Amino acid sequence: MRPFIVVFALIFAGSSVATAGDLAAGKKAFAKCRACHAVGPKAKNKVGPILNGILGRPWGAIDGYKYSGGKDGTLLAITATEPKSWDVETLSAYLRKPKDVIPKGRMAFAGMKKDKDIENIIFYLAQFDPDGNEIDPEAALSAIDETSN
Fold first, then answer.
1. Is there a domain that residue 18 lies in?
2. Which of 38, 68, 71, 94 has the fewest Cβ atoms within 10 Å of its own Cβ atom?
3. What pLDDT tens digit does each residue of the chain (149 aa) get?
4. pTM for the full model?
5. 3-state DSSP helix/strand/coil percent for the chain, to nearest 5?
């Protein structure tokens, strides 16, 4: 009976489950992302856009970065039809399998396999505000939960 209660609680906890991440583990898991993405006060666009303040940010919002656009299934085509923001659920799905979220996006990464790595990366990213300053990741995730409910 207990496993059922835990599973039930996790299902109905929604995106708040991501607030239980580990910053050190998130930083380590983010190493896979660093070749293309940057975070922090001195972050610059690379092959991929900077990820400061990604949670709650609209898709395609980083100035100076050339997002995939034009054809159906690209980031800009998807957001032209229905504007989207990066919430925990969408970012989790994207980190798991980017092509399922943005089928013709530019990101070549196949995706993360471990749920815990995804959770920890999101927790790690939540600590960076749009200017790259460090903030309380739990507070940032709680604020995202409140605006998406």
1. no
2. 71
3. 444 333 333 333 444 444 468 999 999 999 999 999 999 999 999 999 999 999 999 999 999 999 988 889 999 999 999 999 999 999 999 999 999 999 999 999 999 999 999 999 999 999 999 999 999 999 999 988 777 65
4. 0.84
5. 50, 5, 50
